[in-house]
Amino acid sequence: MKVKTLFSAAILHTAFLFPQESWMNTGGSNWNNTANWSPPVVPNGVSVTVTFGSAIVAPSTVTLDIPVTFGGMTFNNAQSYTISPSGSNTFTLQGAPTNITDTTGAHTISVPILLNNNLIVTQNSTGNLTFAGAISGTSSLTLQGSGTGHLVLTAGNLYTGGTTVTAGTLDGNTTAALPASGPLTISGGTVNCNIANTLPSTGLITLSGGTLQLNDNSQMAGPVTGTSNISLGVMSSTILTSTITSTTAYSGVISGAGGFTLAGAGGVLTFSTPNTYSGGTIINGSTLTSGVNNALLSTGNLTINSPGVFNLNNFNQNVAALAGSGSVALGSGNLTTTTAVNSTFSGVISGTGTFTQAGTSTLGLTGQNTYTGGTTISGGGILQLGINNALASTGPVAITSGILDMTPAASTVQAIGPLSGTGNINLGSTQLTINSTASSSYGGVMNGPGSLIIVGPQTLTLTNNNTFSGGTTITGGTLQAGINNALSPTGNLTVGSPGIFNLAGFNQTVGVLSGNGSITLGGGTFTVNTPALTTSTFSGVISQAGTLDVGGTGTLILTGANTYSGPTNIAVGATLQGTTTSLLGTINNSGNLIFDQSFNGTFSGSLLGGGALFLNGLGNVTLQGPQTEGSTTVNAGELILGSAANLISQVTVAAGATLGTTGNGTITGNATVNGTTQLGLGTIDVTGNYTQAANSTFDVEVTPSSSGFLPVTGTVALQSEPSLVIAFEPGAFAPSTTYTLITAGAPVTGTFAAPVLENPFFNGSLIYNGIAPGSVQLILKIAPFSQVIKGGNAGAIAECINIEAFPSESDLLPIVQTLIFLPVDKVKDALEEMQPSELKALTRTEENNLLVVRTAVSQHMDDLNKTPCNQAMSGTYRWNVWSNFSGDFLRQEGQAENIGFDANTAAAVGGIDIAAVNNLYVGLAGAYDHSWLTWNHAEGHGRISSYYAGPYLGWFDHRVFTSLSILGTWNHYHASRHIRFPSVDRHAKSHHTGRGFIAHFDLGVMMYPATEITCSPVAGLDYILLHESGFSEKGAGSINMKVKPSIASLLRSEAGLKIAKCAIFTHNKWTHDLKLSWIHQHLFRGKHLHASFKEVDCTYTVEGLEPSEDYLDVATGLTGIFLQDKLAASIRYEGKFGDGIRDNTGYIQLSYRF
Description:
Layout: H1 2-17, E1 20-23, E2 29-30, E3 37-38, E4 49-52, E5 60-64, E6 68-70, E7 72-76, E8 81-85, E9 91-93, E10 98-104, E11 107-109, E12 113-115, E13 119-123, E14 129-131, E15 135-137, E16 141-144, E17 150-153, E18 163-165, E19 169-172, E20 184-193, E21 205-213, E22 219-221, E23 224-226, E24 229-231, E25 239-244, E26 247-250, E27 254-255, E28 259-264, E29 268-271, E30 281-283, E31 287-290, E32 302-304, E33 309-311, E34 317-319, E35 322-324, E36 327-329, E37 334-337, E38 343-345, E39 348-350, E40 354-357, E41 362-365, E42 375-377, E43 382-385, E44 397-399, E45 403-405, E46 413-416, E47 419-421, E48 424-426, E49 431-435, E50 440-442, E51 446-447, E52 451-455, E53 459-462, E54 472-474, E55 478-481, E56 493-495, E57 500-502, E58 508-510, E59 513-515, E60 518-520, E61 525-530, E62 535-538, E63 541-543, E64 547-552, E65 555-558, E66 568-570, E67 575-578, E68 586-589, E69 592-595, E70 601-603, E71 606-608, E72 612-615, E73 620-623, E74 626-634, E75 638-641, E76 646-653, E77 658-661, E78 664-668, E79 671-673, ...
Parallel strand pairs: 1-4, 2-5, 4-7, 5-8, 6-9, 7-10, 8-11, 9-12, 10-13, 11-14, 12-15, 13-16, 14-17, 16-18, 17-19, 18-20, 19-20, 20-21, 21-23, 21-24, 22-25, 24-27, 25-28, 26-29, 28-30, 29-31, 30-32, 31-33, 32-35, 33-36, 34-37, 36-39, 37-40, 38-41, 40-42, 41-43, 42-44, 43-45, 44-47, 45-48, ...
Antiparallel strand pairs: 1-3, 87-90, 89-90, 91-92, 91-107, 92-93, 93-94, 94-95, 95-96, 96-98, 97-98, 98-101, 99-100, 100-103, 101-102, 102-105, 103-104, 105-106, 106-107
């Protein structure tokens, strides 16, 4: 055994010494036999080269009975060598390089081969070199050579380094002859696929030269790239399937009768040369992209299954049939189908390009495509839409030859761009929306129960008679007729703003009309046949010359501001309703015409025919010119007959409705009024009979010289005392005026109820049939004001305003003629202005002035009382002279009907007194004051000048003090009342005198809670009596008043508390006092004022301002005593505050004792 091992090692060592070995046996034998080799060493080693040359003389088999490694092998014998394995023995090719060369003959290696280095096969022979054993390893195989023999692979190989053919021919004679993942590069020569699926199923196939021939054997291949060609074969069943997951491009030509299938996910394959294979294209995955127009044969079918994509990449492509569920990306290119075989594509076509159905068959689109370039049907075939919005909503559609079919049930809505062509559209039940972004003309026929919607902004012209019955809606742009009845005569039409339906001079009949857009007639006739129990409402505008025909038995309502200039014809049984804005021109009415409006308007057109006219709205309708209707019924609002109106019709006015006129209107026919006849100042001539029904109203207006007038040629019947309402136009009415309201051709039957006068300052009465043969006359008289104005001062003066009692030269008459046309409250205000109750402010002011003067006297008497500061004064000096100066500011608010006023008064008071006996002083006082009055609201002003004189006395002891004074007064009063109301602005001036007196008594008790403090409860009474002379005003014309003399008497009581504090210094003494009291007043007389107009002997009594009954009096002062108690000076304030009154008075007083 040891000897044998040493022998084998020696042989191996010899093999390395001899790397080139040649087969020397003339026939077949085992490899592991040194006798078969020259040199006699078994070839087995890295880089060993084996040559099978000319030794054999017949085809021979060399059996590989051991594993062998070699670097190269050459065949060079016309006789065939076959190297076959014994057991599992294999070849390992390893060296630099490794190669197998066939120089001559056809040879076969059936031994499995392991490639540890890249293998180069050089085929220079005319015979084939066959590898029948499986090739494995990580290295590659390259075929080169100049021979015509092929390299034939008959085993499924597993090497992963790839296959390269630079020259020669490689035959794949078994499945997976070329490893699945290894790349295949063909830079020259030919690769023959002699059985299905011999190509790498996932590896990259690069064709940079040479040819790949499938020889009618379908192949599952990896990505294909390069520039050289692929031949599929002559059988249409041959399919080349390329599976890609990345981006690649192929610029060669695939030819043959077979087809091409693209598979994979996420990859992109670009065909940049037009291919000629005719078996069609299937895209099951990834993306097939065009790099040239018609990258696919134009007669081949195209099937795109999801998620596959066919990307035209802005190029154009024609195909036979289109099918599948994948996607087509047009870019800006065009896809055209030309087949005569029906197909369905359920995927999505996208992009800005176009799609053309040029075949004669039916192509169904059941996906929601989004391409926007437009659709063309040109081959006479059918493009069938099997889903909602199968086409992009803005893409144009041109049907030059063929049909656009929307009848499948799944298709209910479809929007497209501009429509053109002459082919038909089967709408089925689809609602078709046309977005007219560009003007177009369509000459085909749209049919079926579906509907059409037009969206602008441009124009679509229909030049054929479409028959679809679902109706047409125009929401924008213009739908223009290019033929009579371009739309179905029974279909409904809706024209919404800003949409336009343009008849363009053609005629069109529709069913129900609606919307608010525009209809232009252009000289055509537009007929609306509204079915029974149905209403058409159109609020848009119908314009241009043309005719509107209203048919059917339903109602057409027009509410827009129409301007069309042709006639309007209303058929028997039809109804047209509108307004004076929407109805115009000549209306030939054989049916029903209704004006129904909430505004007032005038119809200036002509009404003709024997139909019925109705007014139903709350607005007024004015008719101008001659009008003829079979009957006229005013159900609501007012029918007004203009000055030239002549309504030839039987007229009925329902309850709540009105018949009126703006001038002189005429009714030729009978008139029955259940509502209101409102003549105003106009005239309605009735050539026929006139009936004023029960519960109706006859309303007429009067001026000082005229009134409304109803002349009737036939009879006049006033049923169950209808109402008669008299309205007034302001003017200078006479005290009594007679008006003729109605004349008749026979005596008037029945009577009105008592006239209802809209001006309460008139009285009215009626005369029936005073003018033969029949009439109704009204007598109006201006009523006494007391009939209207009652109560208060205004009611008092109203008793004296009776126009019949006025002197003829008085200007009271024009004043009254103005007042009677004012609202009652304004008349009342005017009477308040006239009456003189505000003059009572003079009385109230003088009453207050008496109290101010008397208070000055009482303040002096208080200073004489014995207090801690004037103890020495009580017996030292007997005489006392004194003076007092005051300013008073009185504000009295208004009461009831009387306005308030302000009065400012300045007064000077003086006196002298003597101590007649112990603690008793007697004196005499005199005073003068002047007051200025201003009434609120600039209602006037006044002045009072008064003189005062009278005695006073006072007594006091240590605890009690009392005083008594009586002052007489003489007064001069001046006043100017400002009287203002409509048409009057005057000043009534007056002056008069007066006299009177005030008597005062008070009593108080002194208490001394502290040495220098005096606390004195006080009480007092004042009685005032004033007499004023009578007087007459000047400056206000007839509204000057004559005021009678008056007397006012007032009792005033006071109760309060006065507190004083004395401060004694070396040379003077000071006393500060505070007084609070409550005052109550009672007016016995003087509240009323009796007056009369200067020109009318009628006295009335008015009520003036009353003094406040209760108020608070607050007084405070500071008194100083100087010069050894001879001189005393004081300053004081007194305020009175009551309901509606504020009176503030300031006093300064000086006294000297001697």
